[in-house]
Amino acid sequence: MRLNLLKKGQLPLSFAGLILGGTLLLLLPGLLRNGGRLSVLDAAFTACSAVCLNGLAVVPLHEFNFFGQLIILVLIQLGCFGILALSAIILLMLGRGLSFSDTLVMYNLNDRFSLGCTESLLRTIATYTLISEAAGFVLMLPGFIWGGFGLAESLWYALFYSVGSFCNSGMGPLAGDIADTGRYVQAVSIGLIELGGIGVYVIYDLLQKFNKKEHRIRLHSRIVLTTSAVLLISGMVILYLLSLAPGAETMEFFDALYMSATARTTGYASVPVGSMPPAAVTVIMILMLIGGSPGSAAGGIKTSTVAVAFAALISSFKGDAEVIMFKRSVAWRCVLRSFTIIVIFLLISVLGALLLNVFAPQLDEQQCIFEAVSALSGTGLTLNSATSLLSSGGKVIIGLLMFAGRVGPLSIILFFVGREKPGALRYPEERVIVG
Fold first, then answer.
1. Dihedrals φ, ψ of 334, to 5°?
2. Residue closest to 157 by CA, chosen among 62, 264, 272, 273
3. Staple 239 to which of 179, 216, 256, 374, CB 3.0 to 4.6 Å?
4. Which helix (DSSP H) or strand (DSSP E) does residue 357 occupy?
5. What 3-state DSSP class applies to 199?
6. Phi and psi (nearest 5°) for 198?
7. Number of helices and strands in the chain (H, E)
8. What pTM did the predictor assign?
9. How does 310-342 read in b/e, with b if 16+ C-beta sit within 10 Å?
10. Cα–Cα distance between 215 and 338 in angstroms, integer?
11. Is 92 exposed, middle or buried (0-12, 13-18, 19+ CB in 10 A)?
12. Ramachandran category for residue 7: left, alpha or beta (phi over 0 → left; psi -120 to 50 → alpha)
């Protein structure tokens, strides 16, 4: 029996089912260190945050015992794979292969690769994820041991933070989170964040280039690699310079680098966001909205989406009739998709902030905007511990934003794919006065 991945509503229902299962597990007794039990709302919020790879938490992870943290780690890992990709990988590992319809939907989701290499791409997802996390675990382990943690603690923390960093989840079992780990572990974390946020499509493309020297790096990979590097470096420089402003708390250069990397949907913080000047908080929100790259564990608008929209703006200023990137013409369909996704994300962010202002009056305006952007982009950073102040209504709003941010972009793509039709008819062109 094969899975029908094209079934209407399969994507959101798959994630909703996983969140429901996680909620039920987190309602079990004996998962908190103080012997208490989570409320239904707090369990659902925690499960949603873990599956959606967000990191916002109303109950800090260090308050869970080992079994509670293990459940959350498993939910993070499953959320990273994604229900669709995970189902396809399981079929492949069982040697049953993908049906044509299953292969077609995965092809449409990544539409940068030929139909014939889709199964190979899905195998790469599993292999790349597990190898990256294993390498991160081995590299992080000495850092925790050097930091004075016991062997058992070091093993667990290295595993959790390697998976959390690669999956861009932002959840960690230490009370002070990644800030308590030291520079070495944080440096490894940056590497895992970038590996997890760059996207398996780019990795697959690079592996093809390594195996076949004549293989040409695709435009998508060039855009992602360039945009990711520009965002990481420019974010680091801007955050550091803003911390030098009079009255601001000067940030170390490494912290500026880490916050630039983690702001694009990971959520670990080497310094509290609340200690940054308002201008730096705004930069963090911009980086959160942009997020990682397609085919990655990261959320947000996505680097390639923003790059295409930016290139379209440059072409408009130059008066060009086409959008050109790396000496390649970008299809107008792709340009329209990019602007559509950006507008939808901005509108939902504003709506989320307005709803939080109504249902979570204990938060100020800046906290409402920040929490809404953090939830929708799958980042998990919080401003002045705003998440812990949420009322029941605020938790529901944040949970819905986390869910929308995780399944929304893929659902939008599936919507476009389902409505795509050849342009058999062209109407007369007429100019419209804009501006």
1. -70, -40
2. 62
3. 256
4. helix 332-359
5. coil
6. -80, -25
7. 16, 2
8. 0.88
9. ebbeebeeeeeeebebeeeebeeeebebbeebb
10. 27
11. middle
12. beta
How is 365-380 classified by DSSP, letter by letter? HHHHHHHHHHHHHT--
Q: Around Cβ 413, how many Cβ atoms within 10 Å?
A: 18
Average pLDDT, whole number, for the chain?
Answer: 85
Question: Kindly report the CA angle at 264 between 330 and 267, in degrees rounded to 5?
Answer: 160
Q: Which of 84-88, 150-154, 378-382 has the lowest mean pLDDT?
A: 84-88
For the record, the structure tokens of 137 come out as 């675990």
The Cα–Cα gap between 196 and 165 comes to 8
**Distances in Å between the alpha carbon of 257 and those of 171, 215, 260, 273, 288?**
19, 33, 5, 14, 15
How many Cα atoms occupy the beta-carbon half-sphere of 52 within 13 Å?
36
In DSSP notation, 292-346 reads --TTSS--SS-HHHHHHHHHHHHHHHHT-SSEEETTEEEPHHHHHHHHHHHHHHH
Q: Are 382 and 374 in contact (CB under 8 A)?
A: yes
Provide mean pLDDT across the span 152-165.
95
Handedness of CA 349, 354, 360, 363 (dihedral sign): positive
State the Cα–Cα distance between residues 78 and 351, nearest whole angstrom.
Answer: 29
Q: For residue 297, give both structure tokens.
A: 């564990």
List of residues 6+ apart from 114 with CB closer than 8 A: none
DSSP state of 6: T
Q: Would you say the C-alpha torsion 46, 52, 56, 62 has a positive or negative sign?
A: positive
d(C-alpha 236, C-alpha 261), whole Å: 8
Three-class secondary structure of residue 64 per DSSP: strand
Q: What is the pLDDT of residues 248-270, one digit of tens each?
A: 888 999 999 999 999 988 889 99
The 10 Å Cβ neighbour count of residue 66 is 12
Q: Which residues are CB-contacts of 171 (< 8 A; sequence separation ≥ 6)?
A: 49, 50, 55, 57, 61, 72, 76, 164, 267, 380
Residue 155 burial class via C-beta count within 10 angstroms: exposed 0-12, middle 13-18, buried 19 and up: middle
Dihedral sign (CA 181, 186, 188, 189): positive
Chain segment 51-61, per-residue pLDDT in tens: 998 889 999 99
Q: Which of 240, 284, 252 is nearest to 265 (CA)?
A: 284
Residue for token digits 């919507």? 415
Q: What is the amino acid identity at position 62?
A: H
